Predict the 3D structure of the following.
Amino acid sequence: MAARASVSQCDRDQSSLSRTLLPQTQTFSQCMAANSSTFSLAGLAQGGVNAALSAMGKSGVSFENTWRATLLGGNPISGTLFGSPSDAGTSAAATTPGLLEMGMGTVTTWGRRTSDVLSLNLAGKGGLPLALGDASAGVRGWLGTANSVLSLGLDFTTRLEIDAALSALEAAYCEYKTQ
């Protein structure tokens, strides 16, 4: 009987020890929040730079969590869904020019003198009436430039595809780690 009591006490001590010394498991959302900047273009760049520095025997750098890296190379998908409120705001600021540019569409004609009707050579003054005129062309050009800078020269949809793939990899990683 005495041996049984000591084994039971040992089991309690071991489980108590494992709760205090071993790291607690994360939930899926906590894992996604902790790794939202790692699975991004900035995280990939930091990994590449650190690998090169390590090969040269130098210490690594950490820039993936800075607001500049998040603005230019962050992952807006996981940053918005799982990151901190500042990550979500930075992601929104980075994607807004591309979303607005896509939402503007292209200049279209409207009314009696559309491009199809003008082919009949109707008499009249002026050219095609534009739904989005010259002023919106300047705004669209500015949005395109801002989007090009914030998307690191990539097309907006290409950048979102890359970020979606990185978010899927992050989700698979966190699913594996939280099992």
Observations:
- Residues 156-177 form the longest helix (22 residues).
- The chain has one domain: 28-177.
